[in-house]
Amino acid sequence: MDAHRRPLLDRTPALLTEGYAWLPNRMRDSTRSVLRTRLLGRPALAVRGPEAVRLFYDESQVHRHGAIPPPILDTLFGQGAVHTLDGAAHRTRKELFLPLLEAGRVARLTEHVTGAWDEAVRAWSERDRVVLFDEAAVVLTRGVCDWAGVPPGAVDTDTLSRDLVAMVDGFATPGPRHLRARRARARQETRTARLVEEVRAGAVAAPADSVLQRVARHRDTAHGPLDSRTAAVELLNVLRPTVAVSWFVAFAAHALHRWPAHRERLRTGDDAFATAFAHEVRRFYPFAPFLGARTVTELSWHGESVPAGGILLLDVYGQNHDEELWGDPYSFRPARFLDRPPGPDELIPQGGGDPAGGHRCPGERITVGLLQALAVRLARLDCTVPEQDLRIPLRRIPTRPRSGFAVTGVRAP
């Protein structure tokens, strides 16, 4: 039997045990950056590289509808989210999010978050020990809620922070973390839908053109206003990825601890270096292992094929550590991004392609802006890093330093 036509073993169990290394381990022996496999009972084709990124975002070849497994929708994105739409429906819904790409809005969000951070540092100075991952999540929640127009007192930011973290932390694993993620999403969708209804009824005032107001008033072309539950899903799809920057904050602290030579340059407020540092944190440290889409027709790529209704996998972690793209990819070198900005189809921790018209995360600019500003503050943070478990397990998705990166003896500026 032709080796390319032999029945493929389902590799889902290996994914659960190998984590981020699952695809890179299997693609290591391929000379064409393509691999046939089977996942969740369906034939799959795994690809990586800039050319493959363009294939992955070609809507004539692949769709998102039906591609995201229900457990991920029920935790990370929410049913009916923009991530599940294609074509005109996707473009119309994405109009909710495109203003987030504007430099002025990103700057205002950064101001809200850095203000919350500076206030938090003063409180940390009165505590024996703080865990930066946890505290960053609270800071980001407070900042993004203020920026999004969520009225003070309309939400419990501490509870919301824990729930938003739980949604991200439990999307890719069975067991208790996944159950916490489901409960967190159900709780916050109910609360946020109620808030949307109150805004629509005039019982709660939302600033004009705020994210909350835009979500409450948005109309899909075919179906009119979003139902309150879907509106809640999309508001959470602004809040949740912003709070997910806490993973990158913990990674940035980890990088500064391992390679302290970068600290001094960040302290000076060198914007170009801070941006390069943010890009390198996003490239070097693991966040999304891969992305998936559903093939519309039989798809062939570099001599391998997958039938219609199969899965196309984009190897995010593998591409961000591809020797041909980066050279010495397992060295942490922010300077690699001082020479030139990353190409849109090269650095893909939050997807590839065009964020305005495609499926690339529109919040990527927010992530970079926030991480750039918070990395400078981390470099200036006067504290002690005690002995702790700073290992980053690649079997855990999403991963982070085991300890969450604890610090002691914080001294307020």
UniProtKB/TrEMBL annotation:
The keyword Chaperone does not apply. The keyword Cell inner membrane does not apply. SUPFAM superfamilies: Cytochrome P450. It holds the Pfam family p450. It comes from the Bacteria. Its cofactor is heme. Keywords: Heme, Iron, Metal-binding, Monooxygenase, Oxidoreductase. Belongs to the cytochrome P450 family. This is Cytochrome P450. It comes from Streptomyces salinarius.
